[in-house]
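Researcher: Here's a chain I'd like modeled. Treat it as a single chain, no partners, no ligands.
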Amino acid sequence: MSFIPGIPIRPAVLGLILTIFGTGSALADDTRAQKVPLLPKYQQECSSCHVAYPPGMLPSASWKRLMDNLPNHFGTDASLDAESVKQISAWLTAHGGTYKRVREAPLEDRITRSAWFIRKHDEVPASTWKRTSIKSAANCMACHTRADQGDFNEDAVQIPR
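Model: Modeled as a single isolated chain. C-alpha cells:
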C-alpha cells in the first residue's frame, strides 16, 4: 500500500497516522456516539429538568445505577413509571459508553466528574461555574448553545457573564 506515491506505508501504520491526526477511530467512535438519535421518551422525561445528555457520555453501568435510583436522582425525586424506566434503561445501557474517551465510571456517576470532562474544561475557573447564569458544570446549555442537539463543539461555546 502507498499513501504517498513511491513511499510504501503499511495499513497498520496508516491507521496509526490517522488516529494521531484525529481522523481515525477515536473520531469515528465519538461521531458515531453523537449521532445516536435520542430516544423520544428519554428526551421528554430527562430534558424536563436538564439537557438530555448523549448516552455515550457515561458507561452503561453508570446509566444502570442512575436509572435504578431515580427516587434519589442527585437530590431530586425523578421517579418514572415502570415501563418508562424499562424502556429508557434498555436504551441507555445499549448506547452507554460509546464515546471512546469514556473508559470508566466517574465518581458518583457524574458526567462532570469524568476524566474527559475535567480535561476538556480545565481552563474554566471554578468561579465561572458559580455564575448565576450558569449555576453548575452540569448545565451544559449555559455555554454549549447546541447541547440539546447533542452538539458540544467548542466553536459553538458562548460563556455567559
